[in-house]
Write a structure and sequence with these properties.
By secondary structure, the protein is mainly β. It has one domain. Helices cover 0% and strands 57% of the residues. It contains no helices and eight strands. Strands 1-8-7-6-5-4-3-2 form an eight-stranded antiparallel beta sheet, with no helix packed on it. A hairpin with a 2-residue loop joins strand 4 and strand 5. About 4% of the residues have low confidence.
Length: 134
């Protein structure tokens, strides 16, 4: 999954952007479950989420916490809405970022962007994760 930020009222640069990287996306009927395939996901927090499909329309909701400093973390609530195509799905991402602890002024704030999720072809699937599980 790749993403690009289009609006950032949080002004935290690359620390706060729509999800990206390698994810496991399970579909059963119209329900979707998403989770990280690497146990150490760094700046983007540990990700899990749920969603739904209606025809070619896809919606995924995820929540994650990102450690910013010894006194501050960011709670990120993300909604990704997109359209299914032959290789995956793509669309718009909307993040609401709330402060947990002493993070200073400016919260809650919003980040918006676009994303593209491409299916991994079975013959070429394989994710190389760096870091260690804790």
């Amino acid at each position: 999954m790749t993403s690009t930020t289009t609006v950032d009222t949080c002004n935290q640069g690359s620390n706060l952007r729509p999800i990206q990287g390698f994810f496991s996306i399970g579909v059963q009927g119209t329900s979707i479950v998403i989770g990280g395939v690497c146990c150490a996901v760094g700046l983007f927090g540990e990700l899990s989420g749920t969603g739904s499909m209606d025809g070619t329309q896809v919606m995924i909701q995820s929540n994650r916490m990102i450690f910013s400093s010894s006194t501050c973390s960011w709670q990120i609530d993300e909604v990704d809405a997109g359209t299914l195509d032959a290789v995956g799905f793509s669309g718009a991402a909307s993040l609401t970022v709330s402060a947990v602890g002493d993070c200073g002024p400016g919260f809650p704030c919003k980040v918006r962007g676009i994303f593209t999720a491409e299916r991994c072809p079975y013959a070429k699937c394989g994710v190389m994760c760096s870091g260690f599980c804790t």
